[in-house]
Amino acid sequence: MAKLTMTQKMELCERLDKERKNGRSLPPRMKQQVAECASMNSSMANMAATMSPDATLDR
């Protein structure tokens, strides 16, 4: 996933999440990507929590 843009990563994570929610068995490589998505999501949540409200406004 290192070579993907942020948009591509988000799309991949969405597809993987849909596959997982549909109960499909994921191969080991896809399971690794799901773990990377979870890590990316938690990092983004932590970053958003530490930002001041003014930093998120468009001016």
Please compute the radius of gyration using only Cα atoms: 14 Å
What structural category arises from helix and sheet content? mainly alpha
Look at the structure and give the mean pLDDT: 84
* Percent helix range: 55-70%
How many DSSP E strands?
A: 0
Task: Describe the sheet with the most strands.
Answer: none
Multimer state: single chain
Order of helices and strands: HH
Number of helices: 2
Low-confidence stretches: none
Tell the overall outline.
elongated
Beta-strand residue fraction:
under 5%
Ends distance: 33 Å
Please describe the structure with a list of short key phrases separated by commas or semicolons:
59 residues; 66% helix; mainly alpha; 0% strand
What does this structure look like?
With 59 residues, this protein is mostly helical. The protein contains two helices and no strands. α1 packs across α2.
Offer a quick outline of the entry.
With 59 residues, this protein is mostly helical.
SSE arrangement:
Layout: H1 6-21, H2 28-50
Helix pairs in contact: 1-2
